[in-house]
Amino acid sequence: MKQEWLEGHRARKRFGQNFLHDQHWIGRIVRSIDAKPEDAIIEIGPGQAALTREIIACAGHETAVEIDRDLAAFLRTQFAPEALTLIEADALTLDWATVLEGKRLRIIGNLPYNISSPLLFALMKGAHRVIDQHFMLQKEVVDRMTAEPGSKTYGRLSVMLQYRYVMHKLFDVPPGAFVPPPKVTSSIVRMIPRPVESLPEVDLEVFGEIVAAAFQQRRKTLRNAVSAFLTEDEIRAAGIDPTLRAEALDVNAFVALANAAAAKKA
């Protein structure tokens, strides 16, 4: 019955569905996550349960967030309620600061390529409750997430996420590991939230605005890119060379700019 259902379900483009099926890669991902029975695991987009089965075998239970009603119905036929708690919802609209309230979370998932960046930003709101996150994403996205200052892939996503997380790219997963095979290579990333007490103090709204403006036109120098927020002298007073481009600045430099802009607004 299970096999008939799987063959009858077509991946839906609007949900960005590509189903992992290769046992070698499933096993490698599961070993990287290293789920334990005491873990409160949330899987985003369990799909046809390729990872779900293995994680439940290790941890005994997981909570899953699935937006596709047909897949949610399928999952209910495959797992007892004590093994799988299903949240039928859009992961983008969940309140990640309160879901599974009172528990420290480990979040995993094969994230749809079409919503990966908005979802990563949405998850930041609950980062104080998270032990770690293991995600499969488009290789290009993971390369941007983990990029270092000075590289071509370093940008807004790099700065915003690296402020909040320590990130490690683990390995690539080829298109052939999926049905249907995507046109791109995927990668596994591990994201560990930085302790709240270690985060540089900054107005996150201003920080986000400064970072977005700085990278909006990468070839502009800072004195031009963030001129709506700070003058050349104010950039220099923050300890930053105004002739630099955004890609040359590390996270702490952007924090310094944001703090200068916030002080100016106060």
From TrEMBL:
As its record notes, the protein acts as a catalyst of:
adenosine(1518)/adenosine(1519) in 16S rRNA + 4 S-adenosyl-L-methionine = N(6)-dimethyladenosine(1518)/N(6)-dimethyladenosine(1519) in 16S rRNA + 4 S-adenosyl-L-homocysteine + 4 H(+)
**Is rRNA processing tagged as a keyword?**
yes
Pfam family name, one: RrnaAD
Identification of the protein by name? Ribosomal RNA small subunit methyltransferase A
Query: Which subcellular locations apply to this protein?
Result: Cytoplasm
InterPro entries reported for this sequence: KsgA/Erm (IPR001737), rRNA_Ade_diMease-like_C (IPR023165), rRNA_Ade_methylase_Trfase_N (IPR020598), rRNA_adenine_dimethylase (IPR011530), SAM-dependent_MTases_sf (IPR029063)
Q: Name one GO molecular function term.
A: RNA binding
Task: Give the enzyme class.
Answer: transferase
What does this protein do, in the record's words?
Specifically dimethylates two adjacent adenosines (A1518 and A1519) in the loop of a conserved hairpin near the 3'-end of 16S rRNA in the 30S particle. May play a critical role in biogenesis of 30S subunits.
Tell me the residue numbers annotated for binding S-adenosyl-L-methionine. Answer: N18, L20, G45, E66, D90, N110
* NCBIfam families tied to this protein: ksgA
EC numbers: 2.1.1.182
Q: Which HAMAP family match?
A: 16SrRNA_methyltr_A
Q: Which SMART domains match?
A: rADc
An annotated GO cellular component of this protein is: cytosol
The yes or no answer to whether the keyword S-adenosyl-L-methionine is present is yes
Superkingdom of origin organism: Bacteria
Instruction: For this UniProt record, give its keywords in alphabetical order, as a comma-separated list.
Output: Cytoplasm, Methyltransferase, RNA-binding, rRNA processing, S-adenosyl-L-methionine, Transferase
* Residue intervals of the Ribosomal RNA adenine methylase transferase N-terminal domain: 25-195
